[in-house]
Amino acid sequence: MERISVAERRARLGRRHRLAGSAQAGDPVEAARSMVVLHGTDPATVHLSIAARVPGSEVAGTERALYDDRTLIRMLGMRRTVFVVPTAFAPVVQAACTDDIAEKQRKLLVKHLAEAGIAADAEACAKWLRSVEESTATALALRGSATASELSADEPRLRSRLVMAPGKSYAAQPYVTSRVLFQLSAEGRIVRGRPLGTWLSGQHQWSPVENWLPDGFGDKQPADEARATLARAWLTSFGPGTVEDLQWWAGWTLGQTRKALTTVEAVEVDLDGSTGYVLPGDEAPSPEPEPWVAFLPALDPTPMGWKDRSWYLGDHKSRMFDTTGNIGPSVWANGRIVGGWSQPESGDVRYQLLDDVDHETATAIESEAHRWTQWLAGVRITPRGRRPSPLEDELSKR
């Protein structure tokens, strides 16, 4: 079995993730494709992830790819997470992950509707949900694009309330609106369009998929075939990785993961005592890139690409990740995390190193912090949909 060392994995990361200076991407789509997908839960992440990989990238260029050219699209994908996906690859993600998620979430929503007494029984709740979905889709088609609030005005049943965790301190009675729109988007019927407000806004216009993409998501592959295609893409960008890494990243069952690896004829390699996988012909060492540093945003796809992060994270998990497994902004040097960064109210980018680095690397990190301060131009990035990591929180208060 071929051995792939930690040093080799870090060299691959610098080149394949477009972080080394000589390997950077030419445009937002190329940057996204090199990572398979970009995280889209926090609206700032996609812009910062692209700017870290595309020299001279600006918010306007990423917005153009998302909303004008529509070569990138926001959609639900692996682990029930929102990602920004190259549009041509969206049918693969849909068939490999999202269709299963949609099926499970429909059953869960019907259960919650029944618990809230929306209709007499589960069967009646399922019919009620279908009726509301069709009415909402019709209202959206008539408007062309709309916000959740506008659709609730058109279809008052969207303001029906669920009853979540009754009797608990965290009990809530949310409107069904977001769940219905989630279901329609998970089934590929509607898509998230432009944000309301600035590029940091988490609220979006919704559009029928046919209005946004004339051919919709196109022809989908069978689920097993799509999972193999997704596994191949992941191995291209993140290999070598273990079964557990791919299973976690994709949100698949163990059986689905093993079948996908078998289909692509993944090759076993030795990762210092554990078994990893690469694509056939990808066992040979990669040329080591020149020294590089990078400031990556919270939830960037690089640190979120593997379940086992010890080979690039070291002992810094408690400082860099929140309690639910989301990473904060990170500082990288030559394939490993050496610190974190954040912004106080002034908007300046401030960082703290957690590892010792040589003088040349320290100088490059200082220069990169200055570059990001200029790029953000006073715009302050605050956590959306996640807790700040401990180090991020500390730095934001200095």
Structure commentary:
The protein is α+β, with helices and mostly antiparallel strands. The chain has a domain at 309-396. 43% of the residues lie in helices and 14% in strands. It has 16 helices and 12 strands. It has helices at 6-16, 28-34, 43-51, 59-68, 90-115, 122-143, 148-154, 177-186, 209-212, 223-238, 243-250, 254-263, 310-313, 317-320, 359-376, 390-396, and strands at residues 2-3, 38-39, 72-76, 82-86, 190-195, 204-208, 267-271, 274-278, 293-296, 330-333, 336-342, 350-353. A 4-stranded antiparallel β-sheet has the order 9-10-11-12. Strand 3 and strand 4 form a beta hairpin. Helix 10 (223-238) crosses helix 12. It is globular. 43% of the residues are buried. The mean pLDDT is 96.
Overall mean pLDDT = 96
Largest sheet, in brief, is:
4 strands, antiparallel
Approximately how much beta-strand content do the residues carry? 5-15%
Distance between the termini: 50 Å
How many beta-strand runs? 12
Helicity, as a percent range: 40-55%
Strands ordered across the widest β-sheet: 9-10-11-12
Order of helices and strands: EHHEHHEEHHHHEEHHHHEEEHHEEEHH
Summed up, the helix count is 16
Rounded radius of gyration (Å)? 22 Å
CA-based shape: globular
As residue ranges, the low-confidence spans are none
Structural class: alpha+beta
